[in-house]
Specification:
68% of the residues lie in helices and 0% in strands. The protein has helices spanning 14-32, 39-46, 50-57, 60-80, 87-104, 106-112, 124-130, 132-146, 155-174, 183-198.
Length: 205
C-alpha cells in the first residue's frame, strides 16, 4: 500500500506576515474606527491566532506604532514625490500630494495627528518617521531658496509656516468645514498664495 507523502508546511515569511497584519489593522481601522484596533480584531481580520500578532509586534502598542510608522512613511513619500526639476513646481506639487494622501487615507490621517491610537511614549523610530514628511518639505524649501526662487531665510521656519497653512486647510476640508463650492480649487489657490508670498518678486511668473 502506498501512502501519500505529507506536504511540507509552508510558513509565511516574517516580513510578509507583518505586512499582512498591518493590512488587516488598516482594514479594521477604516471599517470600525480607532477603538476597534485590538490584537484580537486584527488577528481575526488576518485569519491568524492572536499570538501571531504578539510574536510579531510584542503588544497592541507595538502594533499601533507599526501602523503609524507605515502611515507616516506613506505621507513622507507623497511629499517627496518624484522630484520635479523646477523647485517651485516641486514645492507646489508636494502640497497637492499632501492633500491627496489625506483624502485617500482619512482614517490613517486622523490618527496620525490625533491621540485616538496613542499608546504611551512614542519610540525614537516613530518620532523620526513622523518628522520625515516635514523634513522633505524643508528640503524642498531649501532647494528653492538656493535656486534664488524663494526669499532666503530659515528653511525650517518657512517650512513650518507652509505646513501650518496646508495642514490647517486639509484638516478643515476633512472635517467638512470648507464653505466654498470647489474645495480643490480653493486649496490650489491657497498654495499659489503661499508661494507668491514667499517668492523672490522678479521670479514670479
Amino acid at each position: 500500500m502506498t501512502t501519500t507523502p505529507k506536504r511540507a508546511r509552508v510558513r509565511t515569511p516574517s516580513r510578509d506576515l507583518q505586512a499582512a497584519l498591518l493590512d488587516a489593522a488598516e482594514e479594521v481601522l477604516v471599517r470600525d474606527g480607532p477603538a476597534a484596533v485590538t490584537v484580537r480584531a486584527v488577528a481575526a481580520q488576518a485569519q491568524v491566532a492572536p499570538m501571531g500578532v504578539y510574536n510579531r509586534f510584542g503588544s497592541k502598542e507595538g502594533l499601533v506604532e507599526a501602523l503609524l510608522i507605515r502611515a507616516f512613511d506613506g505621507l513622507r513619500r507623497a511629499v517627496a514625490g518624484p522630484g520635479e526639476l523646477d523647485p517651485i513646481e516641486r514645492l507646489r506639487a508636494s502640497g497637492i500630494r499632501y492633500r491627496q494622501f489625506a483624502l485617500a487615507n482619512p482614517a490613517q490621517y486622523a490618527v496620525m495627528f490625533g491621540a485616538a491610537l496613542a499608546g504611551g511614549e512614542p519610540s525614537v523610530e516613530l518620532k523620526e518617521c513622523a518628522a520625515g514628511a516635514f523634513q522633505e518639505l524643508v528640503g524642498h524649501v531649501a532647494t528653492a531658496m538656493a535656486a534664488g526662487r524663494l526669499v532666503r531665510g530659515d528653511a525650517q521656519d518657512v517650512a513650518q509656516q507652509i505646513w501650518g497653512a496646508v495642514h490647517g486647510a486639509v484638516t478643515l476640508e476633512m472635517q467638512q468645514r470648507i464653505f466654498t463650492q470647489h474645495p480643490e480649487r480653493t486649496y490650489l489657490a491657497l498654495l499659489d498664495l503661499i508661494i507668491r508670498g514667499l517668492s523672490v518678486p522678479e521670479t514670479i511668473v
